[in-house]
Amino acid sequence: MSDFILALETSQSACGASVYKNSKENSESVLSKDRSHAQLITTVIDSAMKQIAKDFTDINAVAVSIGPGSFTGLRIGLTVAKAISYSRQIPLILVPTHAALSLEVFTLLPGLKNFIIAQKVNTTEFYVSRYRQSDMGLRAETENVVMNEADFKEFVTETDTLVSPQNWFAVEKYVNLSSPKPSFVAEWALRYGERIPYTEIDNKEPLYLKDFVIKKKAH
User: Fold this and answer.
1) CA 30 from chain center: how many Å?
2) Confidence label for 219 from pLDDT (cuts 50, 70 and 90)
């Protein structure tokens, strides 16, 4: 078996996969269509495999972005990752979505010393994480919290760059990113991830942060 891992990213509208060994030897496939993760995930996995001429026998672990993010997207990504882990009898690596995105920002935009990653939960709340860069590397000050609009506005300072899919409050420093590339999910998994044996994955769940309630239609 080779040293490649398969990484899945389904936390937002994009659905992506990466077959990854290192920053030079990898492939990536991403498709974006709202509420279509179930239809797209096998396509992006197959595409990433074909790009680098690998198949499941070459994979020694599967990594998946576990949130925060879309309830349905996270559930689909983790379900597929668990199925691959169990069927191939390889470890599962759970990757916090904001942590993977912070690694992408840290790698591609090293000039950003202070940045906040934010995503909408609903019309009034946000998933929020704050990171700071220094000579010691990247450090999380606040990670994976839910804030209402008033608290979030107060949380963002003049020295922060907002990393998000939309500049909701027209802040001066803004980077348009909504989710990590699957290759950075893979890179985070290789650097920091815990390899969970396939025999111990049944109770693993996405990082939802919020309790989602299915509303019944009024009659």
Assistant:
1) 13
2) very low
